C-alpha cells in the first residue's frame, strides 16, 4: 500500500492547482494527495475533480463550506490520513512556495529517524525568494521570538512544509490544538516536541507565490504573537505523554 499522503488546503487556487497536482503526481515516489478545499468560489474544487478522474486511487478531495482556517483544514486532513493508515503525512501549500521535489527529502528524513521533518527556511542561512525584506525580517524574528518563549531550538517555527510520521498525529490530541492561523504551525511543532518526538529541520528554498493571492493578514500575526505566550503558560500545567 502507498505510504505517503500530501495534504494541500485550498481556497481560490485555480491558477496553481492543476500544475501542482501534475508535478506531485509525476514525482518518482508514489505520493497520494488530499485536497481540503474551503468552498473556493473560483472553481478550484472542480479543477481537482476533473484531474481526479485520471487518478482515482491517488487524488482525493474533501470539500468544506466556507473559509474555516488553515489549522482546521489540516486537522481535517490529518484525521482523514490517519484513518486511511498512511505512514507519512505531509503539509504543503498550493502556491508553489514549497518545491514539490523537496517532498522526497522530507520523507527521507523521516525514514532515517525523524518523527517530524520540517522544510526549514532558516536552518542554513535565510533561504527565501521574492519576499520583501520586511516580510523576511518579520518571519525570521517570529521564530527567534518563539524560541525565546518556548526554549525549544527550532530555527523555523512558522514553517508550513512538513512531514509527520503517523504515530505523531495519533499521539497528539488533535482536537486540543487551539490555533487556526499562523500560530497553528508553531503549536504543532511545540506539541510534538513536548510529546518527546524528534523534530529534524531539512533546508529548503522558499519561493513566494507568483500567481494567486496571499492569505496572510494582520490578525494571523497577532494570533501568533500573543498565542505563543498562552501556549507556553498552558504547557506548564499540562502533562504530555511520551511519544
Q: How many helix segments?
A: 8
Please count the beta strands (DSSP E, at least 2 residues each): 9
CATH architecture: Alpha-Beta Complex
- The gross shape turns out to be globular
Q: How many domains?
A: 1
Proportion of beta-strand residues: 15-25%
Report, as a whole number of angstroms, the end-to-end distance: 25 Å
CATH first level: Alpha Beta
One letter per element, helices H and strands E, the order comes to EHEHEHEHEEHEHHEEH
Largest sheet: spatial strand order:
3-2-1-4-7-5-8
The average pLDDT value, as a whole number, equals 90
Radius of gyration: 17 Å
CATH fold-level label = Spore Coat Polysaccharide Biosynthesis Protein SpsA, Chain A
| Unreliable stretches | none
Helix content: 40-55%
Sheet with the most strands, sense and barrel status: 7 strands, mixed
GO molecular function, one term: dolichyl-phosphate beta-D-mannosyltransferase activity
Family: Belongs to the glycosyltransferase 2 family.
Protein name: Dolichol-phosphate mannosyltransferase
Keywords: Glycosyltransferase, Transferase
Short overview:
With 243 residues, the chain is of the alpha/beta class. Helices cover 40% and strands 17% of the residues. One of its GO terms (molecular function) is dolichyl-phosphate beta-D-mannosyltransferase activity.
Task: Provide an overview of this structure.
- Keywords: Glycosyltransferase, Transferase.
- Pfam families: Glycos_transf_2 (PF00535).
- This is Dolichol-phosphate mannosyltransferase.
- Belongs to the glycosyltransferase 2 family.
- The chain is globular, with a radius of gyration of 17 Å.
- It contains eight helices and nine strands.
- It has 243 residues and is of the alpha/beta class.
- 40% of the residues lie in helices and 17% in strands.
- Helix 7 packs parallel to helix 8 (218-236).
- The chain has helices at residues 17-25, 44-52, 70-83, 102-111, 133-150, 166-171, 182-194, 218-236; strands at residues 4-10, 31-37, 59-63, 88-91, 116-120, 128-129, 162-165, 199-203, 206-207.
- The chain has a single domain (4-236), classed as Alpha-Beta Complex (Spore Coat Polysaccharide Biosynthesis Protein SpsA, Chain A), CATH 3.90.550.
Amino acid at each position: 500500500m502507498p505510504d505517503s499522503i500530501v495534504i494541500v488546503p485550498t481556497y481560490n487556487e485555480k491558477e496553481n492547482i492543476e500544475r501542482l497536482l501534475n508535478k506531485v503526481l509525476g514525482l518518482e515516489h508514489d505520493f497520494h494527495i488530499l485536497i481540503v478545499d474551503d468552498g473556493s468560489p473560483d472553481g478550484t474544487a472542480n479543477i481537482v475533480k476533473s484531474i481526479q478522474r485520471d487518478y482515482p486511487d491517488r487524488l482525493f478531495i474533501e470539500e468544506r463550506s466556507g473559509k474555516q482556517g488553515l489549522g482546521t483544514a489540516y486537522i481535517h486532513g490529518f484525521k482523514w490520513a490517519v484513518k486511511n493508515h498512511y505512514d507519512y503525512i505531509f503539509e504543503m501549500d498550493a502556491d508553489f512556495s514549497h518545491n514539490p521535489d523537496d517532498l522526497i527529502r522530507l520523507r527521507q528524513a523521516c525514514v532515517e529517524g525523524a518523527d517530524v521533518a520540517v522544510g526549514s527556511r532558516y536552518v542554513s542561512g535565510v533561504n527565501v525568494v521574492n519576499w520583501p525584506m520586511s516580510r523576511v525580517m518579520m518571519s525570521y524574528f517570529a521564530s527567534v521570538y518563539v524560541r525565546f518563549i518556548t526554549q525549544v531550538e527550532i530555527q523555523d517555527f512558522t514553517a508550513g512544509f512538513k512531514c509527520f510520521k503517523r504515530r505523531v498525529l495519533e499521539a497528539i490530541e488533535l482536537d486540543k490544538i487551539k490555533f487556526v492561523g499562523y500560530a497553528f504551525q508553531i503549536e504543532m511543532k511545540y506539541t510534538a516536541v513536548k510529546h518527546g518526538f524528534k523534530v529534524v529541520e531539512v533546508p529548503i528554498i522558499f519561493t513566494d507565490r507568483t500567481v494567486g493571492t496571499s492569505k496572510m493578514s494582520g490578525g494571523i500575526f497577532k494570533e501568533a504573537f500573543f498565542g505563543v505566550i498562552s501556549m507556553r503558560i498552558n504547557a506548564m500545567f499540562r502533562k504530555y505523554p511520551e511519544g
